[in-house]
Design goal:
The termini are far apart. The protein has 14 helices and 11 strands. It has 2 domains: 255 residues, Aspartate Aminotransferase, domain 2 (3-Layer(aba) Sandwich); 101 residues, Aspartate Aminotransferase, domain 1 (Alpha-Beta Complex), CATH 3.90.1150. The radius of gyration is 21 Å and the shape is globular. The strands form 3 sheets. It has a 7-stranded mixed sheet with strand order 2-8-7-6-5-3-4, with helices on both faces. The protein has a two-stranded parallel sheet with strand order 1-10. The chain has 399 residues and is α/β, with parallel strands linked by helices.
Length: 399
Amino acid sequence: MAVSRRRFVGGIAAALGYLGVGADVDLFAQQGRGGRAGVPGQGGRGPRQLVDLTKVAKINNNENPYGIPPAVREAMEDPKAWEWANRYGAPDGGLNQAIQELHGVKAENVITGCGSGELLSSITIALLIGDPKKKVLGVNPTYGDPYGKASQIGRESIKVPLNKDYTQNIPAIIDIANKRAAEIGFIYIVNPNNPTGMIVPKAQIKQLLDGIPKDMPVLIDEAYHHFVDSPDYESSMKYVVEGRPVIVCRTFSKIAALAAMRLGYGIAPAELIRKVRTFTTGSQSITVKFGGAASLKDTAGQAKTKALNKQIRDDTIAKLRALGHEVLPSEANFFMVGLKREVSDVAPEFQKRDVLVGRPFAPMTQHLRVSVGTQAEMDKFMGAFKEIMAAPAKASAGV
């Protein structure tokens, strides 16, 4: 059963008691880190920069540019979705049952959140707050919410650099997990990785899970799972079914096109779900739950979006490579292109041309993350890219 708002705030207050933080602390202040929602080009969850969405090519937040599919919108507008909207604990439109059936799990293995971002934060608190020595172990760069949340609650992160080919260094993570096992609260993997769009192959996921202490939790963010074509990839859901201490998170913000509606879910062993639930609100909108249930069954709509994404992504990448630019191989709805100049210098030039692109991801500050938009948006991006890159790069400070 979802916790009430009072119980949620009480849980947070209890957690902060470990740190000696006053109960009047602003728990929901802007994070200012690499979030899925926030000011374009900056990340975080603070107020968004106001832009005219009818005018700009918005290719900075890895969204589905095609809008909510008809089947999903129809479910959200169904009178049944509104019948008990005035009541807490209203029916969820079959969402929880649909998740169970999709993944072959029980209700005790499922938790929902306001986007998977809420769950990543709640998981981080749940797995680190009880012991000041505990840390999150993952790579850098990656989607940074757990690192940011760990810092907020006074915990540290161990960030392993990517390999020279920008893949995740799984052997190094295994080595650290074993040598510093007493310090590791959980391991964090984003697959495919954000911002690179590159996968961790299924063989390496198995290598990771087989090579670390058996009781060490592993959080795997599969926000971009639905876009992957590579036969070397597979979801890690099966490891939850096997009973391993694995938490897999999914979101409806990407292929399902419900980014502004805020819905995600996690799958994990029941013990981990109970631990995390203390720190979640359980307050998702009833209408988005109906939409989420319909989305899980809308395989045709998802296949169409996936095919369009691949076609436009691969075409844009080919054009960029033809111009002589390095582009990382991507299995997601975004990619990274090498600029040989700072993203922080280039992004404002794109914005002047009504194109919103990704923020810098340290230390890859000369690689620009570009979300895959519609064909018209990517044409606009390519036009702006050619203009901007034809101009001389800004001189470095002190030169």
